[in-house]
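Quick one: structure tokens for this chain, please?
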Amino acid sequence: MSKKKVGLPPLDWLRVFEAAGRLGGFSAAAREFGLTQAAVSQRIGNLEAWLGRTLFVREARGVSLTVEGESYLPLVQDSLQALERNTEDLFGKAPRELRVAGLSSNIHALVLPSLIRFQARRPEVRVMTDSVARRSSLAEEPTWLQIRYGRGAWPGRDAELIAPEVLVPMAAPDVAWGAPLINLRGERPGWSDWANKTGHEDVPPSKVSFDSMEHALTAACQGLGVVLGSVPLADAHLREGRLHRMGLPELETKDGYWLTWPEERAKSKNQRALIMDFLRALRG
């Protein structure tokens, strides 16, 4: 294939090439742009003729990038993303909506108390929440801004710590140490871990067991016993007097509550500023 042109190829051809390379085929690129497969093939053929290089190997079972195509793809992607980001920074409007997903307990305990602070900063922004039933569901959740529990390391995602997880024995005001324990199943350290770390041997027996911190805290508020409660999630209960700390040692963990988003979704100045304002509100 002989080289026909020099300089920058038409943007439309580059966008179609990027989609075909990223999605692994002409058909997928055609669906993304609402084109026919023949139209995609024509644009890529034009690009190859312009460059004088073959970018895709055409085979009966589909297409694959050539070595030169694999080298060119990240350069095109970086350039298109930079153009989009700079255009948004110069001409884009400030975002008018913020949508965040998380476990129901995290939305209730972390997002709701922060909304007044966030609205004071961003009165023009509408906030929407999406609750998920299980932590594992967040990986498939289409809402890209999420609150997650863990250690802040999720491949392909940026994360900012909202609050570290600290566990403390707590109960309703009229419940004293020696009352039955409320057990919580899951990833968090439990009463046996707390006893081992603090040296307590007189740990009362457990009468009820939950798989949700939200349910365990609610049970403690109702006087059912003593919970090894999450300080960030129990903040409202503690401030309003529904729960009180027992005066016993707390248990710090390596986990925490994080605001996370895909790396590519916070490239523009406006989007980053919105996320940071929301994070400040969450942190109080």
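The chain has a mean pLDDT of 91.
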